[in-house]
């Protein structure tokens, strides 16, 4: 990451001063660590409570990797739709930013029946959207399979794990890869079970 930031400095040294680069590194570290870490904890908890889903994930990985003893790597992730479904389902049930981050209207606008004055702080209740039984069948049940056929943005904004628009999370791609790789490796390498009820 630091190398990428420093290469910006090479291209436009007057704009990307040391201070700007330092700020960008801090933003990325603060916005990218806790979010990714807690997105790792929840699927493990959900899988331990849904052993049949854990088994399916193991079978998907073992079938894809085959008999070889190699570890899962980045290039395998695109071939593991169920694992990806587990990540989406986790972020749907337990979004790390249940209200996204606060936004402020730069101008007066109308949203639905509401007039929103300029300078209003706006919180999006993502948790309520993603757990709404009118939008999702059995929203409180852990069903990663629902995302296998999911068409993303074509299905509207009912899944907005990383926000939307200009302030959408720029770390989405990185986060999905890191979580997929770490979670997939834990599922591939260990037998997980609860130690009690
Ligand atoms: C699973 C992990 C992550 C989740 C669920 C997540 C989610 C989000 C959400 C919901 C927002 C607010 C978007 C909005 O208000 O519309 C956001 C913003 C942001 N995220 Fe992430 N994020 C994750 C990982 C990362 C990583 C790894 C990075 C960087 C390395 C990152 C960098 C940022 C930054 C810089 C913003 C602010 C964007 C702006 O205001 O223009 N995030 N993220």
UniProtKB/TrEMBL annotation:
Gene3D superfamilies, per database record: Cytochrome P450 (1.10.630.10)
Segments crossing the lipid bilayer: none
Pfam annotation, one family: p450
Keyword Glycoprotein attached: no
Cofactor needs: heme
Source species, domain of life: Eukaryota
Keywords: Heme, Iron, Metal-binding, Monooxygenase, Oxidoreductase
One example GO MF annotation: heme binding
Protein residues bound to heme: 169
Oxidoreductase recorded as keyword: yes
Family named by the database record: Belongs to the cytochrome P450 family.
Full protein name: Cytochrome P450
């Amino acid at each position: 990451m630091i190398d990428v930031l420093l290469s910006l400095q090479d291209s436009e040294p007057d704009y990307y001063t040391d201070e700007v680069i330092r700020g960008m590194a801090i933003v990325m570290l603060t916005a990218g660590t806790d979010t990714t870490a807690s997105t790792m904890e929840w699927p493990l908890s959900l899988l331990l409570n849904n052993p049949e889903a854990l088994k399916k994930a193991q079978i998907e990985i073992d079938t894809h990797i085959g008999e070889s003893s190699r570890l899962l790597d980045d290039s395998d992730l695109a071939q593991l739709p169920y694992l990806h479904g587990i990540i989406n389902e986790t972020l749907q049930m337990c979004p790390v930013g249940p209200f996204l981050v606060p936004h402020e209207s730069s101008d007066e606008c109308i949203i639905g029946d509401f007039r929103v004055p300029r300078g209003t702080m706006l919180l999006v209740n993502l948790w309520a959207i993603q757990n709404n039984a009118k939008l999702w069948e059995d929203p409180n049940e852990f069903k990663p399979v629902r995302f296998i056929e999911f068409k993303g943005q074509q299905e509207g904004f009912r899944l907005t794990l990383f926000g939307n628009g200009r302030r959408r999370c720029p770390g989405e791609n990185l986060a999905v890869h890191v979580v997929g790789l770490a979670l997939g490796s834990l599922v591939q390498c260990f037998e997980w079970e609860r130690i009690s009820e």
